[in-house]
Amino acid sequence: xxxxxxxxxxxxxxxxxxxxxxxxxxxxxxxxxxxxxxxxxxxxxxxxxxxxxxxxxxxxxxxxxxxxxxxxxxxxxxxxxxxxxxxxxxxxxxxxxxxxxxxxxxxxxxxxxxxxxxxxxxxxxxxxxxxxxxxxxxxxxxxxxxxxxxxxxxxxxxxxxxxxxxxxxxxxxxxxxxxxxxxxxxxxxxxxxxxxxxxxxxxxxxxxxxxxxxxxxxxxxxxxxxxxxxxxxxxxxxxxxxxxxxxxxxxxxxxxxxxxxxx
Length: 263
Prior knowledge:
Blueprint: H1 5-16, H2 20-41, H3 45-64, H4 69-112, E1 123-129, E2 136-140, E3 145-147, E4 149-150, E5 155-156, E6 160-162, E7 166-173, E8 176-184, E9 187-195, E10 205-207, E11 213-218, H5 241-260
Antiparallel strand pairs: 1-7, 1-11, 2-6, 2-8, 3-7, 4-5, 8-9, 10-11
């Protein structure tokens, strides 16, 4: 969603100077504030409070009626009806917050999902081909890019490579935008690559339709806001920006709803 940059960069790009983790923390908090305030002022809070209390009462009664399934089912139906009424009242607020949240998510995904490719850094370009395709593929570089050493074989990548379901080249480029082209027979498909010191990148994967070349992928490393070596114990999980956002948004939402008395 690079098209969002002219609109959102003046407001949000300064946050990147704080570092990826703090950028996610601040944006999670701001989004939570927006959502909570919209819910407070665009819903009938008296009615929402009544429905919430009613739901708690239904839950309490269902626990008491576990030994009486027929009565418990009746109460459960009433609880579902109250829950649907609650969702109906909150629908307007959900619609209002949906668009700005989607736009901010798009901006975050364009700046915080992957590490950038830095000037002079070796990166790989992998072309995947449709099943049954064979022959040779060639990588055509622009004038500010060069083939680099393939660490797997200890020498510079070959411009032309035999197709074995895919072909991979290792490349180095100077700062700026680059267009690398994979040529197969008479077919050519280009991939845009951004090389920069900023937290910014092009979408790593370009998918093509009915051509022999299925996709071209650039190996941007995934960005780990908590550090590349941080792993959540027991789960062996290295959270990216989205995982951290979800956890923080739940915490911020609970605290802000209590602070602003939002139901």
